[in-house]
Amino acid sequence: MTLARAAMLDFTVQLAKKAGNYLKENFGKDLTLEYKGRIDLVTKIDRGSQDLIVAEIEQSFPDHSIVAEEGVSREKGREYTWFIDPLDGTVNYVHRIPFFCVSLALYRNMEPFIGVCYNPLSGDVFCAQRGSGAFRNGERIAVSSSSRLVDSLVVTGFPYSLAVLDDSIARFTRILREVQGIRRLGSAALDLCFVASGSFDGFWEVSLKPWDMAAGVVILLEAGGRITGLCGEKFDLNHGNILASNGKIHDDLRGLM
Questions:
Q1: Which domains, and CATH codes, for the chain?
Q2: pLDDT at 140 over 90
Q3: How confident is the model at residue 39 (pLDDT cuts 50, 70, 90)?
Q4: Residue 193 · residue 212 · CB < 8 Å
């Protein structure tokens, strides 16, 4: 490593801001759309943001592995691995909805170490480093104290795959009957950040990729939250399914999965 541990979080925040400013400069412009799936969008802005991020990481940390959404996977050892989502919430971005972010995570020996999510339009910077707490715009954050589902506001997303859509809708219906309300905002990374800051009490989603979750997982854990698989099993970043909460409603929410 070329930077001390204490400087790593600042590096990640500054890099997220640099990429975020690129997203902001191009927000609202007409974009040529490509499709990775039936409704799974990608744009030149996703790729431009990713190129910027990857170039800076490779210059500063040439020995770090990188896993990024738009087709970058560079294995250089398992001690440090970056998970990069250059634009989490592409569909929102394309439709000019100001809810998206740059999501950057650094894992050490595949354990959560640093997470940063930056929404350049709201100016919100969520960040955390293992053992140092979680923060939003420099202010420490913590999960909510809600302990009953009926008092809880939860958030989710829906999968691109039609093969699991029926199960997702059935799960949504079960949970909707028990909670105060459900939101669907379009950015898994920011969903996790809003659980971390106490705005939401729980979050679940299926068929996600590591870069969708990696940064938000660090931030939520440091804010005092709990994360498992849907059935309460140990969370696996590569499995794709996640149940996250303030901890107090976790078991009750798990029972509805």
A1: 5-139 (3.30.540.10), 149-254 (3.40.190.80)
A2: yes
A3: very low
A4: no
